[in-house]
Every structure is written in structure tokens, then in C-alpha cells.
Amino acid sequence: MFLQNAISKRIDNDNPVKVALIGAGKFGSMFLSQVPTTQGLEVAVIADLKPENAIKACKNVGWSDDLISKTKFVDEANQAIKMSEVDVVVEATGFPAAGIEHARQAFQNGKHIIMVNVEADVLAGAALVKEARSAGVVYSMAYGDQPALTAEIVEWARASGFHVSSAGKGTRYLPAYHKSTPDTVWNYYGLSHEEASKAGMNPKMFNSFLDGTKSGLEMAAIANACGLEVPNDGLLFPPCGMDDLANILKPSKFGGVLEQNGQVEVVSSLERDGRPVFKDLRWGVFAVLEAPNDYAASCFKQYGMNTDSTGQFSAMYKPFHLIGMELNISIFSAALLNQATGQTQRFIGDVVSTTKRNLKKGEILDGEGGATVWGKLIPAKLSLSLEALPIGLAHGIKLKNEVKENEIIKWSDVEFSSTDPAISYRRSMEADAKIL
């Protein structure tokens, strides 16, 4: 009740937490849908490249004309961040370079920031956290998104005295999806191009979820926040339902599929032949727990938990998440408790640009969800030793070498400007990580 008590005080003092939202897309719209019924919180300003679309989004989620009239709409994020009344900035653009820029502007203006933009967090989270601490503000994952929800379960498990053998989320996956492009993505979802277009669905965004990139980014974020390891050669995506988590998501030496005891992984809601997994966890998150002793293991059974065949491993999971509709938890935690709902602690996992086909010299990479590359999760140490190009910087960048299909693209394979702000920030973080 600590959070609710703090909110009540702000309500009693007629002093709501004021928010600047950057990006009024799907996540932003889900957050906005909760604003009219949330006491103690006010959206002071919404920044979007097309303010008229932000106004339309507010109307679509049920805002009254009066509430819309009290909110400022701008097309420049910097203008929103600088507003003196703003307490918390929500960065929901999905563009990594923009996310880094907006976070740094928030720090400079003494604002807390909720980084919905997992692409930016994985690209430069370690550096951003360091800068936020120096500025005396909170840099936080977004509660409601799967990384923060997974981190919450991990924290609960460890604080309760359990070892966390694995943690992660569910998704829809088949091996062929890694080659999916914006032109083929709707076939995998069972939609026509016309149906998807009519629904306003972005093919690159949906392709990022399908081809494994978004899963890699979210698992990197969890690993970096929770101190969990990542697989050495990408996620396995084993088919697995809720009842089988403890059997499958445990180390191989105990009969599971994991390389290490304490790593991230994603489970598929589809069997490899395309059949649906029984009691799948497509929309949820989980952590597999290892009992510290026989008595704890006996309690797993006594209290009806699903265990593996030995009874030593069990799982705690949340079958659903409501993404932006849960974001207020992060906003209030930052503004009222000065706490993050998940935050990068170490640079453990990285997501690197991996080719979907043979690429020729001179080709332009089209980044996350595109037709040229997908994002593969590997250990940060390996990424640094390979000088791998992070997926967050693989958009609009030109190849100067040929790269074969299924290969990781390196910095030496591309033409880039070291003065580009996002590239410079990332390269500086890489240099610091190598020193450590």
C-alpha cells in the first residue's frame, strides 16, 4: 500500500503527478485510455510527429472534449520535456536513436523517464542509467511490458529465498519466422494485406514481433536488469505450456533445455509442426524456481504448484499483460517513491544484426522488422569481441562488404559516421564495457 498511500496524499493536496507522453501509438493509446479514471495523475502534454493523430487517439480511447482541451499537443518532444510542470516523461516512440536523445534531454531537465522504448534501453541502457543517476532522476522500465513484469517475478522469487533458474515470456514462434519480411508477415498471421492495412497495422512492427527481434530485445532487457545470463547462440524458443515450464525451462543437467542455471528464454505457443501448445503462455511471463531444500520442495507440492518430475523445480507465471494500461505503476513509482520498476544493472545481453539472406555490398539495411536483418540475442561479451552491429543501429546504414545469410553483421561491414549522436553514445558505452 506504500504506493497507494503516496497517491492519496497527492490527491488530497490536489497535486497530481504530471506526465509528458512522447509517442501516441498503440502503447501510448493504451496508457491514455486509463488516464480519465486514474486519480492523482494528469497528462500535461503529448508530443507526436502528427499532433492531430494524438488528438484522434485521445478521442478513440474515450477522452472527453474537456480533457482534450486541457492537454497540450506538440510535435516536438524537446518542447514537452522542457515544460516546467512535467514530473515524468514517458518515451514510447519505439525508435532507439530518438529514445536515447529524449532520455538525455529528460536528464538535463531533471525529469524522471519511463523507457517504454526497449530498443533504446537495450542499445544503451547501461550508459543511460549511469547518466540518470548522476542527474538524480529515475530511469525505469515500463510496468505492463513483459520485461518489467518478468523482473517483478524475479525480484519476488529472490527476495523469498528461491534461486531463479530461468525467466522470460511466451510468444508465437516457428523457426521459419526468422526469415519473415514485411511482405510475408501477414501470411504468418493469417491476414491479407488489405485486412492489415484497413486495421492500421504496421508490417515492420508486427514483423519484429514475429521474426524473433522483439523477443531478443525483451530478453536482453530482462537479463541486463536481473543479472541473468543469455544463451550463447540465440534463443531456443522451445514449445512449452504453463504446466511444463518447470520440466523444460531448467538446466540441461537436470533434464531441461537451458545451457546455464539462471538464464533468460522465450517459450513458443506453437509446436514445431504448427499445432497450438496446450495451455500456452503466448501473452504472459514466467520464472522457474529451484527449491533451496527438500522442505521447500515439499511445500511446492502441498500448495498445488506445478513442478518437474523431481519436485525441485516449480514455476510462477502471469498469463497475461496489459502493456500500456499498467503503465501508471511505473509513473507513480518514479514520481512518488523515486523507484524504478526494473532497470538495467549490467550489460549482459546484446541483440545483434543477423542477416535474413545473402546481402550485397552497397545494400541499405532496413533495421528491426525489415527484410534484411533480424535481431539475435547473444552475450554482450561475445558481441563486443565480434564488434557486432547492434540491431538498434541497423536502420538506413550501408553495407561496404558482402555478408552471407545467417551471419552477424559487424561494425567493419558497414559505413557509419562516428559523429552520429546515437552511434557515438553506443560506441562510448562499448568502450567502457570493454575496459570493465
Structure in words:
With 436 residues, the protein is of the alpha/beta class. The protein folds into three domains: 2-144 and 324-337, Rossmann fold, CATH 3.40.50; 147-173 and 212-320, no CATH class; 349-435, Antifreeze-like/N-acetylneuraminic acid synthase C-terminal domain (Type Iii Antifreeze Protein Isoform Hplc 12, Alpha-Beta Complex), CATH 3.90.1210.10. It has helices spanning 2-12, 26-34, 51-60, 65-69, 77-81, 96-108, 118-135, 146-159, 185-189, 193-198, 203-210, 213-226, 245-248, 294-302, 328-337, 380-386, 421-435; strands spanning 17-22, 41-47, 72-74, 88-91, 112-115, 139-141, 163-171, 263-268, 285-290, 313-318, 349-355, 364-366, 373-379, 395-399, 414-415. The strands form four sheets. Strands 3-2-1-4-5-6 form a six-stranded parallel β-sheet, sandwiched between helices. A four-stranded mixed β-sheet has the order 8-7-9-10. A three-stranded antiparallel β-sheet has the order 12-14-15, with no helix packed on it. Strand 5, helix 7 (118-135) and strand 6 (139-141) form a beta-alpha-beta unit. The protein starts with a helix and ends with a helix. 48% of the residues are buried. The mean pLDDT is 96.
Q: Topology of this protein?
A:
Layout: H1 2-12, E1 17-22, H2 26-34, E2 41-47, H3 51-60, H4 65-69, E3 72-74, H5 77-81, E4 88-91, H6 96-108, E5 112-115, H7 118-135, E6 139-141, H8 146-159, E7 163-171, H9 185-189, H10 193-198, H11 203-210, H12 213-226, H13 245-248, E8 263-268, E9 285-290, H14 294-302, E10 313-318, H15 328-337, E11 349-355, E12 364-366, E13 373-379, H16 380-386, E14 395-399, E15 414-415, H17 421-435
Parallel strand pairs: 1-2, 1-4, 2-3, 4-5, 5-6, 7-8
Antiparallel strand pairs: 7-9, 9-10, 11-13, 12-14, 14-15
Helix pairs in contact: 1-15, 6-7, 7-12, 8-12
